[in-house]
Amino acid sequence: MPLRPEFSRPLRADRIGFDRGVTERLVATPAERAALARRFGIESVNRLEAEITLRRELGGRISARGTLSAEVVQACVVTLEPVAQRVEEAVDLRFVPATETAAPHAAGEEEAPDAPDLVPMEPDGSLDLGEALAQQLALALDPYPRAEGATLPPALDAAGEEPEARRAGRGGDQAAPHPFAALERLRRTGEG
After folding, report:
1. What whole-number distance in Å separates Cα of residue 104 and Cα of residue 61?
2. Residue 43 contacts by C-beta under 8 Å, 6 or more apart in sequence?
3. What's the rounded Cα separation, in Å, for the pair 50 and 28?
4. Is the distance from CB of 121 to CB of 13 less than 8 angstroms?
5. How many CB atoms lie within 10 A of CB 116?
6. N or C: which end of the chain has fewer CB within 10 A?
7. Are 129 and 9 in contact (CB under 8 A)?
8. What DSSP assignment string belongs to the chain?
9. What span, in angstroms and rounded, lies between the C-alpha atoms of 34 and 133?
10. Is 118's pLDDT higher than 50?
11. Using only C-alpha atoms, what is the Rg of the chain?
C-alpha cells in the first residue's frame, strides 16, 4: 500500500470542465506543515497556501495555474542559525494521463524552458494537487540559505594553512603551490 503524501489533496479529473474550470484554494494544516518540514529536512513550514485554477484540455490533460505562497525556516549553511524565507511562486502545471508522461520525449520533441511541468495522474484519472504543490515548494527552497552577515571561513590549503598567511611568509608575491602538490610529489617519488 503506497504511503499517503503529507499534503494530499486528491481531485477527480472528471469534475473539471473545459470552460470555467475549477478554482481550488489549498491551505496546509499545522500537522501537514510539520510533516513537510521533516520531509524537506528544514526547521519549519510556517505557512503553505495556494490558489489554483484547473481547466480540462484536449487529450484528457488538466492545466493548473495559480500561485503558491509559503513561509519556511531553514538552517543557515554557515552558522546553522534559523533563516526565514518567504516563497511566492507562480504555478504552471499540466496533469497528464499516466500513459502520456513519456510521450513528448519519445517523439523527440524538445520541451520549452517555460513549458508547464508535466505531472502524471493516477491510473484512476485522479490527480493530487497538494502533492504537486509540495514538490513545487521543495524546488523553490533556497538550497544554500545564509543568515545575514554569515561568511565562510577562509580556505585552508593542503598543509592546513591559510593561503594568504603562507604567501605572506614568502614575501607575498609568489604564487601559491597547487593544493595537491604534496600528493603529486608522493605519487612521483613514492615518498612525502
Report:
1. 13
2. 37, 72, 73, 74, 75, 82
3. 9
4. yes
5. 17
6. N
7. yes
8. -PPPPTT--EEEGGG--SSS-EEEEEE--HHHHHHHHHHHTSSEEEEEEEEEEEEE-GGG-EEEEEEEEEEEEEE-TTT--EEEEEEEEEEEEEEE-GGGTTHHHHTTPPPPTTSPEEEEPPTTSEEEHHHHHHHHHHHHS-SS---TT--PPPP--TTS--HHHHHHHTTS-SPPPPTTHHHHHHHHHS--
9. 16
10. yes
11. 25
* pLDDT tens-place string over residues 155-187: 655 555 555 555 555 555 555 566 676 667 667
Chain length of the chain: 192
Q: Give the C-alpha separation, 44 to 10, whole Å.
A: 24
CB-CB contact of 75 with 146 (8 Å)? no
Domain boundaries, the chain: 10-140, 153-192
